[in-house]
Amino acid sequence: MKKKDSDNHIILGMPERAEDIKFKLIERYGLSDFDVKSVFADETPFQKILEDIEFLPVFSPKKILFIRNCEKINTEGCRILKEYFDNPPAHICIILSGKSVKEPLEKFVEEEAEEEVDRNALFPAVFRSSPWDKNDNLIRLFREHIRNNPVDFTSAVTAACMYLRNTVKKQKKADKRILNKYAELHKLDFNLKTGRLRPGAELEIFLIYLLFG
């Protein structure tokens, strides 16, 4: 089992739970897109994975390295990664997701959720959303999240960026309208983080209009 208070996770056979954990970490640490990276173990040389682990975050207190298809990491690679799970570095959150993992990492596998995932929470709902869904429920969740977290508006912006990325992936195209929305969200995120804007009702209205207008 993973060390208490560690942000490193190994999730097998539950890809949606692994995604939930990733979004929770993004929300907890207010991470930017620049500091969240996903790789496939069967497509990425292990040396490159190690380089990604050692590379320091750019704009955030931590970075996330999400390693999919972890069953493809060989035994020697698992021995090396074990050092990071035994002594978690302060600068990175490592998530392994896949069908299986080799020794000596097996003891760190999380077989059950340590806390029940709220399927109606903002990040899981955005992850499951489709561009063809009705937006009423998502609008409600965005409003509820902002009102319950008034000093952490940037996490809602992160979820909004995720929503637009998912829309592009599912539609398999990025039209000018979506690209303009994405640029506006990044500008909003920057202004919030630099203190040029303050959270408030006007920003809530603007965010909802930008996403769903």
Provide a descriptive summary of the structure in words.
With 213 residues, the chain is of the alpha/beta class. It has two domains: 9-108, P-loop containing nucleotide triphosphate hydrolases (Rossmann fold, 3-Layer(aba) Sandwich), CATH 3.40.50.300; 122-212. It is 49% helix and 10% strand. The protein has helices spanning 15-29, 46-54, 75-86, 122-128, 136-148, 153-171, 176-193, 201-212, and strands at 9-12, 36-40, 63-68, 92-98. Strands 1-4-3-2 form a four-stranded parallel sheet, with helices on both faces. Strand 3, helix 3 and strand 4 (92-98) form a beta-alpha-beta unit. Helix 1 (15-29) runs antiparallel to helix 6 (153-171). The longest helix has 19 residues, at 153-171. The termini are far apart. Residues 113-117 have low confidence and may be disordered.
